[in-house]
Design goal:
By secondary structure, the chain is of the alpha/beta class. It has 2 domains: 3-167 and 327-363, Quinone Oxidoreductase, Chain A, domain 1, CATH 3.90.180; 174-299, NAD(P)-binding Rossmann-like Domain (Rossmann fold), CATH 3.40.50. 29% of the residues lie in helices and 23% in strands. The chain has 14 helices and 15 strands. It has helices at residues 3-9, 20-23, 68-74, 116-119, 161-164, 169-183, 200-208, 224-232, 256-265, 288-291, 308-317, 319-322, 335-344, 356-363, and strands spanning 27-33, 41-47, 54-63, 83-91, 103-106, 144-148, 152-154, 193-196, 217-220, 236-237, 246-251, 266-274, 296-299, 328-331, 350-353. Strands 3, 4, 5, 6, 7, 14 and 15 form a 7-stranded mixed sheet that branches. The chain has a 6-stranded parallel sheet with strand order 10-9-8-11-12-13, sandwiched between helices. Strand 12 (266-274), helix 10 and strand 13 form a beta-alpha-beta unit. One zinc ion is lined by residues 65, 67, 82-83, 169.
Length: 364
């Protein structure tokens, strides 16, 4: 059976009334892995039925994230891709069978659901924190994916799956960070928000900031194309940043240059949100400029599931600003080209369209 047959065998009725035999069949699908050193490999894999408490997803699309660039260069032992949207294709024992056909996005941290953090709905802080989907267990650069049912988050009617992927890292993570940041800023301290780094995360911050009371948003990035994207979305763009000039700073580049800039730019009494991901150590020099500045530093990670409803609301309000962020699309076999364009800076945020028919359903 070739891969097209595999895709066809996974087509779903979406009624949730299928017999269990049809529900849990094995399907074939294509998968792209990242062996490292900027290479990708495609193969075909057999996807068995989901286990207890799990669902199998027919992946519609997976967006690339800046953090994935590390995996493109270093390689990954699991299937990468962690900004995933799709349709539930099969349900495991204990999962309501009528979830089959549900349009979902994938929340990436495994969580236990019963620890003190989960009891407070702070799923991203789960004390029994498990694997991250797309990092330590298989992610979205493939046609099918099995995840815990609790990690498959229903997408509201009226939101297309290829917009819904932006509710994860781009809006969900930035909104959670902004929520933490706004908690430690008084009204006066919300005068100027500086966003350092205008990749997808930084642009997400520019888009979400007004909803958290930040109406004077400035942005800085060495790439003029990215800076123009921030300007188009309402930010004042800066070519250089004065010391102590910003009441709040969001570091969204994940680079040490960006972190150093944020540290210098924050005004006394202000706050810095360290949002960008990077694998290099960051050493803070013990200079008076740092030691004698009275300021807050916040690090946030992902977002709690409980904030999803607010993120959907934000997405409806700021939909126009989000448009165009996923500026280039590739099919599954184009994962390598997508990474090359992403690393070269010619694509803001690539989208891998795994199953165009599943996106087409939104338009019908
Ligand atoms: Zn990400
Ligand atoms: Zn937990």
């Amino acid at each position: 059976m070739d891969s097209d047959d595999g895709a066809a065998s996974g087509a779903m009725a979406g009624t949730g009334t299928d017999t269990s035999a049809e529900n849990v069949g094995t399907v074939l699908g294509r998968v792209v892995t990242l062996p490292g050193e900027g290479t990708s490999e495609m193969s075909t894999r057999e996807y068995g039925p989901p286990g207890p408490g799990e669902v199998r997803i027919a992946v519609a699309c997976t967006a690339l994230c800046g953090s994935d660039k590390r995996l493109w260069h270093a390689g990954s032992s699991v299937v990468s891709g962690h900004e995933i949207a799709g349709v539930i294709d099969a349900t495991g024992p204990g999962v309501p069978v009528n979830r089959r056909g549900e349009r979902v996005i994938i929340y990436i941290p495994e969580f236990c659901g019963h620890c003190a953090a989960c009891a407070r709905n702070l799923t991203q802080r789960c004390e029994n924190a498990g694997k991250l989907i797309g990092w330590q267990r298989d992610g979205g650069f493939q046609e099918y994916l099995t995840v815990p049912a609790a990690n498959a988050v229903s997408v509201p009617d009226g939101i297309a799956l290829d917009d819904a992927v932006l509710a994860l890292d781009t809006l969900g993570t930035t909104a959670h960070g902004l929520r933490m940041l706004s908690r430690i800023s008084d009204t006066a301290a919300r005068e100027r928000l500086l966003v350092v780094g205008c990749g997808p995360l930084g642009l997400g911050a520019v888009i979400a900031a007004p909803a958290f009371g930040y109406h004077d948003v400035a942005a800085v990035d060495p790439d003029p194309v990215r800076l123009a994207e921030a300007r188009r979305r309402g930010a004042t763009t800066l070519s250089d940043v004065a010391v102590n000039s910003s009441a709040a700073v969001i570091e969204a580049s994940g680079t040490n240059d960006g972190r150093d800039l944020a540290r210098r730019a924050v005004a006394p009494g202000g706050s810095v949100l360290l949002l960008g991901e990077g694998s290099a150590d960051w050493v803070v020099p013990a200079v008076p400029e740092f030691r004698r500045k009275d300021a807050f530093y916040v690090r946030s990670f992902y977002f709690p599931l409980a904030e999803m409803e607010d993120t959907w609301t934000l997405m409806r309000e700021r939909g126009a600003a989000l448009r165009g962020l996923l500026d280039h699309r590739w099919p599954l076999e184009g994962v390598g080209q997508a990474f090359e364009a992403f690393c070269a800076g010619t694509a803001i945020k690539p989208l891998i369209v795994v199953r165009p028919d599943l996106l087409g359903e939104d338009a019908s």
